Amino acid sequence: MDNITYYDWVPFFQAICQGIAALSGLENRDELLLEKARLTFEPGDPILRFTFTDPFSYLYALAQRNTAKQSDLYFERARAAFGVAVAIPTDLIFPTPQPNALSLFYDAGRYHDNNDTVIGSGPVWELFSSLQSREPVDSAVFLRVLSLKNVGVVKLTQVMFLVDPENYIPFDTRMNSLPVPDLANLKLTLAKISETGLTAYLEAIKELRRWFLGCKLYEINLLNWLINTNLPDRLMVEKSFAVISSYADGQKNSDQFDDFVEENAVWTGGPASQNGHRVYPLDEFYRGDILLVRRGTAWLGGIGIVLHNGYLAGGWDEDKNIQILWLIKQDRKISDTKLGQWDGFVEATAKTLGCFRDVYPETFQIIDQIRQKQRKIMNHRLNKQKNIILSGPPGTGKTRKALQIAQWLTSDEDKSVSLLQAINDGLIPNSDPNIEQIPEAELIQFHPSYTYEDFVRGIVTVTDQEKLIYRVENRVLAKMAMEASKPENSDKAYVLIIDEINRANLSSVLGELIYALEYRGRTVETLYAYNGDAGLNLPDNLYIIGTMNTADRSIGHVDYAIRRRFAFVPVPPDAIAVTTAGGRKLYDEVQALFDKHTSQEFDRADVRIGHSYFLGEQAGLDMRLKYEIKPILLEYVRDGILLEPAKALIENLHV
Questions:
Q1: Are 301 and 294 in contact (CB under 8 A)?
Q2: Can you tell me the distance from the alpha carbon of 532 to that of 226, in angstroms, rounded to the nearest whole number?
Q3: pLDDT for 381 beyond 60
Q4: Facing residues of 444 across strands?
Q5: Going by C-beta distance under 8 Å and a sequence separation of 6 or more, which residues neighbour residue 565?
Q6: Three-state secondary structure call for residue 272
Q7: What is the DSSP letter of 278?
Q8: Residue 628 DSSP class
Q9: What are the E-state strand segments in 299-435?
Q10: pLDDT tens digit sequence for 66-105
Q11: pLDDT digits (tens, 9 = 90+) for 420-444
């Protein structure tokens, strides 16, 4: 992180945009820009397949080359193509389309919408020119570009941000994870923008600015990326609060707050400053700590998060500073009390922290919500056992228990204990959920013919204009894994419930995913490549809960390799659940059958039927005895689970 100059991508893209703008007034601008594209991209690149291109397609394709090796090559070519001297950016945190994403703003060589209405490249150039010159955008032009085939709100707002990152921001999948209440529902925001156009987009930006007063939109985007990325440089917001004075060289010297803002950094004075720098604990604050910025005794300046403390290595030096990411930059006066005269950089006292909380309540709401989300993410990582099997005889409520666990895992409450500890300590609520009540859960049932292609990925055959086309489709496990892996979902729990998990050949159905069950977050190569990528990993926040009927010996056993990757939780019959007198009497009689007449080849705990058969009132219990309880008990006799003398006793059972 030391070699990154945050936001240096902004002047780079601005310089490229200026070069493109120089072509906008020329008659053959599409062809001239294509010549620049030929100087930038490799032969065969999609942007070079036609005789023209446009500003958004060029910029979006350039942003797609977002790895360090690619950027050095392609950004240098772009710089040379337009003859600009701006430095190659070290900060690559800007909208970067996936390698297989459609980067072009035209489809099959035409600018047309989904109704096949020809629009042309004119609106793209017009919108680009307005953005590049910082002029108001025409609503009708915005809607025309938005209507282009293969262009949506996400793609359009991403490229608008590349052109003008001070006035526009991408509304992509990360945005719904930013802790701003009115923007939490990304789908709703995108739908509003799609329906009403520019007005809804500008209103959303206005609401965003309200929570981050004084901050640039590209600063907000950086925060959004850093707190949500799955990469090692994720910014974890810590509990430590430091306070620094903008009078860096002492109260008697000049206020340097404006310099703090311009440099996105803070610093403190040297030996010549008031009190001397040696009294400051410069090496006690780290990345993720919250930094409170004072402006004297009665005014506060803002709040930021430490990105890099340059004082950690070697102590104070006049050229060193502390890089910060601003959350708010706005002067606010302390109303009821004054802080003592102070300068330097120290841990915030309770009084100072209280003053900042009172003055910047919205910023502390954001900090608290980010911490809450990141705490959930850490809980998922620390919860080592993600795979469990609820095992027991029929009728013990295994599927109901699985749904209860799924509801607990996906609830908003903080989880202070692991999943197994919660089950062991009886912390799972005794509710009656159904799968429709748990959006992040899926319930499937295995059977003997279930395959890898049904569960992970498989090839399907579709017809396209009377031609057969074969394509790979994700199945339930891959779909859930990919959804759970999205950065904006990393604090949520996703639960896959597999009923009758041992009815399928697990080794065959799981394949190489047996490895992924244990080593979460590590990519394994699947049998089939989806969108050109055969890799798949099971993230920390994906839980797999199986149910297993221990009485059914006709089905396959779980082999040791798979058994080692699951925790087995017994779900025995529960006599306490049977609350009616008639139900309890019948329950006790049936349990006595198993106590006296179970074959020695079977463990009674594996085969005795559970309490759910005995629930309900008298009328329902009569029907259940006749059509459910007696049939399964007689089947047990035929299968040799219950001995022959039990048959007469079964026939004589009554409520």
A1: yes
A2: 27
A3: yes
A4: 498
A5: 387, 514, 517, 518
A6: coil
A7: G
A8: I
A9: 299-309, 322-333, 345-347, 387-392
A10: 777 788 899 999 999 999 999 999 998 888 776 666 889 9
A11: 999 999 889 988 898 998 999 999 9
pLDDT category, 417, cuts 50, 70, 90?
confident
pLDDT of residue 122: 96
Cα dihedral 224→230→235→238 (10° resolution)? 110
Find the mean pLDDT for residues 226-246.
Answer: 88
End-to-end CA distance of the chain: 74
| Cβ-contact 12, 75 below 8 angstroms | yes
- DSSP class per residue in 15-56: HHHHHHHTTTTSTTHHHHHHHHHHHHS-TT-GGGSSS---HH
Quick check: helix, strand or coil at residue 346? strand
- Residue located via tokens 């027991």: 392
Per residue in 494-553, pLDDT (tens digit) is 999 999 998 888 888 988 888 888 888 889 999 888 888 889 999 999 999 999 998 876
- pLDDT of residue 244 exceeding 60, the answer is yes
What's 160's DSSP letter? H
Torsion sign across C-alpha atoms 470, 472, 473, 477? positive
Q: How far apart are the C-alpha atoms of 125 and 122, rounded to whole Å?
A: 5
Q: Name the nearest CA neighbour of 605 among 548, 554, 546, 550.
A: 550
Neighbours of 480 (CB within 10 A): 22
Helix (H) or strand (E) holding 290: strand 290-295
| Between residues 98 and 599, the one the model is more confident about | 599
**Residue 398: partners with Cβ closer than 8 Å, 6 or more residues away:** 390, 391, 392, 547, 548, 549, 571
> Which pairs count as long-range contacts for 462-467, CB under 8 Å and 24+ apart, including other chains?
none
pLDDT the model gives residue 592: 93
Closest CA to 267 of 233, 318, 326: 318
Q: What is the residue type of 84?
A: V
Give the Cα separation of 400 and 414 in Å (integer).
22
Three-class secondary structure of residue 598 per DSSP: strand
**In this structure, which amino acid lies at residue 447?**
H
Contacts of 324 (CB under 8 A, 6+ apart): 264, 265, 266, 291, 304, 305, 306, 307
Q: Which amino acid is at 277?
A: H
Nearest to 569 by CA among 397, 388, 384, 386: 388
* Predicted TM-score of the model (pTM): 0.79
Helix axes 122-132, 153-163, angle to 10 degrees: 40
Percent of all residues in the chain with a pLDDT value above 70, rounded to a whole number: 95
Residue keyed to tokens 């008031």? 274
Average pLDDT along the chain: 89
Residue 75 neighbours by CB under 8 Å, 6+ apart: 12, 62, 65, 88, 89
